[in-house]
Amino acid sequence: MSAFESFTLLLKTSGYSVTAARTAVFKTLLDQEPMSMHQLVEGVGKIDRASVYRAVELFERLGVLQRVNIGWKYKLELTDKFAGHHHHLTCTSCGRTVAMNEDELERLIAKLAATYDFKPSAHQIEIQGLCTACQANLPAQARS
Ligand SMILES: [Zn+2]
Ligand SMILES: [Zn+2]
User: How far is CA 139 from CA 68, 89, 90, 114, 144, in A?
Assistant: First the structure.
């Protein structure tokens, strides 16, 4: 089943219809880096802002999308169920977010949980810092 098929199935089994706005929001986020609400509203095109907000609210409730917190701001992305498990590297200068996927990290997390006799249900890891482009743009005196 494709991500889109499992999305429509989830909507239907939860008692919601597959509307143009819901489809547009899902497809705009699919296979993309996390987006701000602003980027999402731009990305869906003709759908009005209120419908996008309502779809986002519903999707958060149904576990279709989640917030990626970046300082006091956040971006939106599809949950692991639709995007696969991954973590982020976030640039604190330009706001760019890059997904990373590292088996070694997942193994370490599983091992850590076992060490503490803990049954993990979820985890979040995010690396903040400067991306390659922003490191290059930094004035010399700001580098330490
Ligand atoms: Zn950057
Ligand atoms: Zn992980």
Answer: 29, 22, 20, 45, 11
